[in-house]
Amino acid sequence: MKKILFSLLAFAAIATMAFTVSEVLPIGSAMPKADVKLKDISGKEVAIREVKKENGVLVMFSCNTCPYVIKNQQRTIDIAAFAEKNNVGIIILNSNEGQRDDADSYEAMKAYAKEQGYKWHYVIDKNHELADAFGANRTPESFLFNKELKLVYHGAIDDNPSDADNVKRHHLKEAINEMIAGKEISHKESRSVGCTIKRKG
Fold first, then answer.
1. What span, in angstroms and rounded, lies between the C-alpha atoms of 146 and 76?
2. N or C: which end of the chain has fewer CB within 10 A?
3. Between these two residues, 163 and 42, which has the higher pLDDT value?
4. Distance, CA of 195 to CA of 125 (rounded, Å)
């Protein structure tokens, strides 16, 4: 029994090490890896710095497969449209390298984006380089940067990822409004609820 328990503990430790990420980027931090070129579903390569608009840029970690992503897809579309309307660039990163040969392949990303009517950048985060740099661990998970590429908000789109009909506060929308108005962000962080990013073991 002790041998079995020891083996399970050892396996858990290895698994934890394999999926450990750096600490989440603190609020106020400069954007890491802003110039790294990422392959877009258009076939071109783009860096986040190039996506930034007059008022900043919204970076979202997402995928094709997570039930929470699918359930929240309309919210993603709505907040992306709101960001663009307010001169905030939008880029969605797929960091699921562990599923790159399957449901999160490049071809699957293109098909999913077309199905959802994406009008913004949807890119491959090769070897989850940016997810590791940001400390991102969930899909969906949002990072909002101002025009100086300083992080002003990190977390969920709103306060009820499980039930759109019972949302009481639209965290990301409020953060964009406050950022544009030059105000202090009143709610800088929230807990992202979703699937873990499928990193390579």
1. 19
2. N
3. 42
4. 17
- CATH code that applies to domain 2-196: 3.40.30.10
Pick from 174, 137, 150: nearest CA to 63? 137
Q: Global pTM?
A: 0.88
pLDDT tens by residue, 109-134:
999 999 999 999 999 999 999 999 99
- Cα 9–chain centre separation: 31
Closest CA to 61 of 148, 150, 125: 125
Average pLDDT over the chain, rounded to an integer = 90
Q: Where are the domains of the chain?
A: 2-196
Residue whose entry in the numeric block shows the structure tokens 């890896």: 33
What the block records as the tokens of 77 is 């579309």
DSSP state, residue 26:
P
Closest CA to 165 of 95, 75, 85, 68: 75
Cis, peptide link before residue 140, omega less than 30° from 0:
yes
Amino acid identity at 30 = A
pLDDT digits (tens, 9 = 90+) for 6-51: 333 333 333 333 344 568 999 999 999 999 999 999 999 999 999 9
